[in-house]
């Protein structure tokens, strides 16, 4: 079954969220607004670990991939697990209705 993904975008105070909304699944790449490559490579400042960040989704399980740790974690919405730089989240499509705008 083809998902027919459509892009969307939303933000929180700390995260930029770039997503693809399909027929049954939505995938969201969340990026820390305060982390830039210059911080680590030029100034030598390590990436901050974010904790307590929430997604705008409720009542679902979120499958999370932490790319810089190469780890998969499943958690209950809305609270994300601690992560550095970015995290990729997969949720059921119905949970993104009304909380995101097309991009």
Note down, in words, how this protein is organized:
This protein has 103 residues and is mainly β. It has a single domain (6-102), classed as Immunoglobulin-like, CATH 2.60.40. It has one helix spanning 37-41, and strands at residues 6-11, 15-21, 25-32, 49-50, 61-66, 71-76, 83-84, 86-92, 101-102. A hairpin with a 4-residue loop joins strand 5 (61-66) and strand 6. The longest helix has 5 residues, at 37-41.
Strand order of the largest sheet: 6-5-8-3-2-1-9
The first-level CATH class name: Mainly Beta
Q: What's the gyration radius in Å?
A: 14 Å
Mean pLDDT over the residues: 88
Shape: globular
What's the number of structural domains? 1
User: Under CATH, the topology is which?
Assistant: Immunoglobulin-like
Can you tag this structure with a few keywords?
about 100 residues, mainly beta, Immunoglobulin-like, seven-stranded antiparallel beta sheet, two-stranded antiparallel sheet, 9 strands, about 5% helix, globular
């Amino acid at each position: 079954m083809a998902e027919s993904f459509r892009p969307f975008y939303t933000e929180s105070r700390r995260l930029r969220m770039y997503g693809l909304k399909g027929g049954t699944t939505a995938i969201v790449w969340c990026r820390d607004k305060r982390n830039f490559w210059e911080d680590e490579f030029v100034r030598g400042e390590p990436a901050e670990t974010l904790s307590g960040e929430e997604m705008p989704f409720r009542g679902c399980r979120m499958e999370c991939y932490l790319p810089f740790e190469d780890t998969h974690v499943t958690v209950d919405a809305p609270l994300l697990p601690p992560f550095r730089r970015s995290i990729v989240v997969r949720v059921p499509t119905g949970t993104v209705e009304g909380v995101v705008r097309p991009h």
